[in-house]
Specification:
about 130 residues, single chain, Helix Hairpins
C-alpha cells in the first residue's frame, strides 16, 4: 500500500468547512468499503431493514434500531482508524498494539450484541401479539 504525504491544509470556515467535512466523511465511507466486516454489516443492514419493515413495531423501535446501527457503523470506522494508526506507528508485534486492536474489536462486538438484543426484543414483541 503506497502512502501519500500531504502538506497541512488551512482551516476552512463556514460553508466551505461543511463541504470539506462531508468530503472527509465520504472518504471514510470509501475506506470502510474495503473492510470485510463493514461489507458484512452493510449486508446485514439490508436484512434488518426488511425485518423491521415486516414487523408490526412502533416507529420508536424502528428509530432505535436505525440509530443503534449507525452507532455500530461509526464504531466500525473508529476501530478501523485504530487499526490503521496502530499498524502505522507499531508495525512490529507488541502487546500494546494488540490491546488497542482488541479493545476496538470489543467495542464493535458490544454494538453487534446490542443490535441483536434489540432485534430479539422486536421479534418477541411481534410474536407476543
Amino acid at each position: 500500500m503506497t502512502e501519500r504525504l500531504r502538506l497541512p491544509q488551512t482551516k476552512r470556515e463556514g460553508l466551505a468547512h461543511l463541504f470539506a467535512a462531508a468530503g472527509y466523511s465520504l472518504g471514510g465511507i470509501r475506506r470502510l468499503t474495503h473492510e470485510p466486516a463493514f461489507r458484512q454489516e452493510a449486508i446485514a443492514a439490508v436484512g434488518l431493514v426488511a425485518a423491521y419493515a415486516a414487523m408490526d413495531v412502533t416507529g420508536g423501535l424502528r428509530l432505535a434500531a436505525a440509530v443503534l446501527f449507525l452507532v455500530l457503523i461509526a464504531m466500525e470506522a473508529v476501530n478501523t482508524a485504530i487499526e490503521e494508526i496502530v499498524d502505522r506507528i507499531s508495525p512490529e508485534i507488541s502487546d500494546m498494539a494488540r490491546y488497542a486492536k482488541d479493545l476496538g474489536s470489543l467495542a464493535v462486538f458490544c454494538l453487534l450484541c446490542a443490535n441483536a438484543i434489540l432485534l430479539i426484543y422486536a421479534l418477541a414483541l411481534q410474536f407476543q401479539r
